[in-house]
Structures are given as structure tokens and as C-alpha cells.
Amino acid sequence: MDILDHIADYIRAELGDDIFTEQKREFFLLSFRMQYGKDRHYVYSTAAKTETDRIAAIFKAFREGLPSREIAERVGCTHRRVNQILSTVKMPGNPVP
């Protein structure tokens, strides 16, 4: 999550879920990142967002108890890549370092 996600959350809190729906929020974030994110460090790129979402999906499936081959099929990568991510990336939301 970066500053742009916080801004979108603030907009949603001010306008309400019925006006700034999840679909509108995602469209806003994607459009802004495509136009301004590119190689800047203060707003991460769409490629970084895609990878972050993939990693979150891998850990979600891992917490559900799915084997790495099934996780790989679900997220569209190899089971070796899933194992690599599980062994080298800190689990999101995990307080243990």
C-alpha cells in the first residue's frame, strides 16, 4: 500500500461506498498509476501492483492450506515460483519477522 491507496481510501470515506465504489476506486488507481506512476518511486507502477496482488493471492491460498502446485495454477505461475515467494518474501500481515 502506498500513498495513493491512502488517498483513495480517504476519498471513499468522504464520498461513501455508494458513490466511490470499489470498481471506481480500482479504475481511479489504475488510471492514475498508468499516467503518473511509471518509473517514479512515490507511486508504484502497475507492474509492481500486479506483483503485489499476486503475492497477496499466493499467501492467501497458502493460509487456506492449498499445495504449491494448486496455488500456481490459481495465480498463473509455476509451483517453483510459488515456493520461491513463500520462502523469501515476508508474509503480509505476519507480525513475526
Query: Would you list the SSEs in sequence order as H and E?
Result: HHHHH
Shape descriptor reads elongated
Secondary-structure content class: mainly alpha
Helix content: 55-70%
N- to C-terminal distance: 19 Å
> What's the total count of β strands?
0
Counted by DSSP, the helix tally is 5
The count of domains is 2
Largest sheet: none
The share of residues in extended strands comes to under 5%
Describe this structure in words.
The chain has 97 residues and is mainly alpha-helical. It has 2 domains: 3-44, no CATH class; 47-88. Helix content is 67%, strand content 0%. Helix 3 runs antiparallel to helix 4. The longest helix is centred in the middle third of the chain and has 18 residues, at 46-63. It is elongated.
Give a nutshell description of this structure.
The protein has 97 residues and is mainly alpha-helical. The chain contains five helices and no strands.
SSE map:
Blueprint lengths: L2 H13 L6 H16 L8 H18 L4 H8 L3 H10 L9
Question: What are the key terms here?
Answer:
single chain; 97 residues; mainly alpha; 0% strand
